[in-house]
Amino acid sequence: MNDRTRASEATMLIERLVALVGRERALDRPIERIAYASDASFYRRIPQAVVRPGTIADVQALFSLSHALGVPLTFRAAGTSLSGQTVTDGILVEAVRDWRRVRVEDGGKTVRVQPGVIGARVNAALRPFGVRIGPDPASIGTAMIGGILANNSSGMCCGVTENAYHTLESLTFLLASGTVVDTAAPSADAIFHEAEPALAQGLLQLKAEIDAAPALRDRIRAKYRTKNTTGYSINAFVDYDTAVQIFAHLLIGSEGTLAFIAEAVLATVPDLPVKYTGLLLFADLYAACEAIVPLRDAGARAVELMDRASLRAVEDQPGIPAAIKRLGPAAAGLLVEFQAANEDRRANLAATAGELERRLTLVEPARFTHDPVEQAQLWRIRQGMFPSVGAVRARGTTVIIEDVAFPVERLADAALDLNALFRKHGYDNGIVFGHAKDGNLHFVITQSFNDAAAVAQYARFMDDLVHLVVDGYAGALKAEHGTGRNVAPFVEAEWGAEAYSIMTRVKALADPTGLLNPGVIINADPLAHLADLKRMPVVEEEIDSCIECGFCEPKCPSRDVTLTPRQRIAVRREIARLTARGTPEAIAGLENDFAYMGVDTCAVDGLCATACPVGIDTGRLTKRLRRLRHSPAANARARWLADHFGLVERAVRIGLRGGSVVRSLFGDAVMSRATRAIRKVGLGVPAWSADVPRAARRLPRTTRHDAQAVYFPSCVSRVLGALPGEPAEPSVMAAFVALADRAGSPVTIPGDVAGTCCGVAFASKGYDDAHRFAANRAIERLWRWSDAGRLPVVIDTTPCTYALSTCRGQLSAENQRRFDGLHIMDAITFVHDQLLSRLIIARGRESVVVHPVCSVTKLGLGRQLETVVQAASRRVTVPTTAGCCGFAGDRGFLFPELTETATREEAVEVRAGDHDGYVASSRTCEIGLTRATSRLYRSYIHLLEEASRV
Description:
By secondary structure, the chain is an alpha/beta fold. The protein is built from 43 helices and 25 strands.
């Protein structure tokens, strides 16, 4: 096929897709296709187009088009799959943005979910009922229901009995033929038979064959007594009698190869709140494995095995017990957790653990704890293993994490054999850990796929791994990560010809054209696992350690409007590939689109780093790219503005006053048209909107006499005043001063505070010189104002607190010494620690919504903020969908679509409630949230000041 024919077919495809679902839902630009070419696996395929259907009718139309054109369809939700299940060179169908419904039913006994809702969001909705969904994968904060069902995900406590297969109540599925079936309908089986007679009868015929083959039936039963996601869930033929129920359960773990799951109802399981967690250290793997069955039989909900290599990978990290570093070369550990529903069972948990400990031979006394903080520290040992390897791997290599299952009684030998396999094939950094009570081991290795020798190395390793797991231990090649592309060529090797024949016939019955995610689960190519391997070119140092897992994506405010952090990195890597191949036109096209999608609409909020297993803050890359766009003249202007920031403040206040006058005389529409006209000629003036605040009032008067702290009102507080509809007085500055006075801890505002900036406005735009100047000047003044650190410095805007608290690297040597002597705190902490207990709350609100802005999350101030708000209200709500609002300083003014999409879910949640107060800790975020929700957001300081008026 020549280039002209290929281009013509691509044009026809996108035209047909646009006709079906609309231009906004059909994506075919190179940058969009590259963004979706990767998932969390080490495979990569560039789709012909990406489609975001909004309804079941849209999916039916896509099935019809797929058949008409012979183009495959692959469904995708979060894209956290580890085995290549959600990459394609056909049409990628992302069922996320209009598929996020979650509804708790039957008093919490069941929950109705769509494929695009994140597992943790479902659990958040279930929490008031004391229950959760059964599957508990480590990726539950990112993984979506579509993938959890399609991969039959499990996790650390889930075991075999609480996975998606066993907690499924009903499904609404859509076949490639267009047939829709809700298995909860009383006549679902009859409908299935009538609409799909060949499929229904074919499934019953397969069941009859299995029933007539006792050896096969027994083998199926035995295989599913342990974790196993290799191939299709053919235990459905043993467990169920009707065609519709057999098929519904075959869909669990089918990885999008049989049908589209539009909705599911899952039975919930108890969410046991009482936990007793401990770390047990043993001399060797055998001693550790001998403890697994006694711990399991005693009721331990989690038993996580860690070999010496995995413990060594984390032993130097902060907070890790010193005992781990003293362990011998053969040592191993178990992380154990007992759980109970009621507090009165806590003593029993401790007694059970103590009795077991006395019977075990440990190299160190067990570290059991009831303390949630200490428990979290212990779990960080286990959770840090995967990222610790990923973070230190060589640039240009990828991380491979696989999971296998062995008989529990042979787990120690299996782990040692895995380590021997690593050494044989040159994987010196391999580690082994896993869900020991289920015989499920994970292992992590790293390597490059950038040349033929590296691919051959991996091929030899996989052949030996299959031999070890299947022939050596009769285990499962996939315990919980799904078959995908990586193990598809080995399904028959594990299951045998008879069971594999059942699976191939299931695929043929449900998808006779073979267009649903071809090559996944069923694949006749013995080398399929070596095709489409993801090559990882070296790009920028800020992002080279990215493993493309996608954990960052739920935190990203631009995820529904442009690109996510993972996608930004994928595009940067593609530019590097194209550069190596010498294709300047393709590079220019990607870079042109990346300017807006990757750079301009990145909020640089840093929340991606809080979820990233290797701690990548993609905002650092964005700042670098913004810096590279600046001319020397632009940098000089920014430096001048930093030096004359007092003039900037006055200019903004004058502009706001003038705009308010025009607004009062002619309305917001006139100001909006005027700013749009100015923006069209290339001047970076923010767009005027109805929620632009008035200019701030004058600073309140204070004195240094008896001052308990220096109050540094941020430039935002000094410039941006009341929002439309908000009382002009008191300002947030006046309210804070009043609160401090009432509590007997007066604060002082320096007389020369004007013109002092933390520098974050320059840092976020990549003006490094201006940022350094502003930060150094701020620290110099804070040092002087605080009497060389004698008084603490309190800041009323949390993003500014974060900026000054983390600016040490930008400071001169002298200012670093000053920085080390300063006590910089956010007003949240000052109110919480110094004022709250001394205030008399005379009145309060009934129900208040709290939005923890990004810097509150990064500084760990969320609990303190909630406590402060609780003092002034009967009920406090933090929306489960709260995240970065996307306002990001001035992004909300310059690119309002960023805030609009970032806050969409939170706005729906907020508007659905009955509240009489809405608070945050940053004026710009309050503007964005007010705009999104049509509810007036103010500082929590206003709330507390109002409640404490006597």
